[in-house]
């Protein structure tokens, strides 16, 4: 098992990888463990999409309500921190898309369990931004 540190959208993750199948120069099968959750992944030369898919699988296993990007863009502002209490309608993020600033607001009162994007991060529709309890 090898440990790697991976930065995705400005967030740093510690990932343990165990090789499951014989490697080739184009791909290898591996098991990743993040926050105690195990997933099998296939890592190929172009890993960006597959890493995003693996992260998406992990995100779906997180308890709480997921706050996702409504459209592709760049995060201009992150107005919350992990552990913050938030109120319904509170501005959590400002997302720039098509040269317009879009406010992403809390859908309800709650506590921020995780913030999964940093200022300046690029997002696609459906990317996880935060999880609230």
From TrEMBL:
- EC identifiers of the protein: 4.1.1.70
The residue ranges of the Lipoyl-binding domain are 57-133
Instruction: Give the matching SUPFAM superfamilies.
Output: Single hybrid motif
Keyword Nucleus listed: no
Asked if the record carries the keyword Transmembrane helix, the reply is no
Annotated Pfam families: Biotin_lipoyl
What name is this protein filed under? Glutaconyl-CoA decarboxylase subunit gamma
Q: Species name for this entry?
A: Clostridium liquoris
Which taxonomic lineage is given here?
Answer: Bacteria, Bacillati, Bacillota, Clostridia, Eubacteriales
């Amino acid at each position: 098992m090898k440990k790697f540190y991976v930065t995705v959208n400005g967030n740093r993750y510690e990932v343990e990888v165990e090789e499951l199948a014989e490697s080739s120069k184009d791909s290898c099968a591996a098991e990743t463990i993040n926050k105690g959750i195990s997933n099998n992944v296939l890592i190929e030369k172009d890993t960006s999409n597959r890493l995003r898919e693996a992260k998406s699988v992990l995100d779906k296993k997180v308890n709480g309500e997921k706050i996702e990007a409504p459209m592709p863009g760049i995060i201009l502002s992150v107005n919350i921190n992990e552990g913050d209490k938030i109120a319904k309608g509170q501005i959590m993020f400002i997302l720039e898309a098509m040269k317009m600033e879009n406010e992403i607001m809390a859908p309800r009162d709650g506590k921020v369990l995780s913030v999964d994007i940093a200022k300046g991060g690029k997002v696609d529709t459906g990317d996880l931004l935060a999880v609230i309890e």
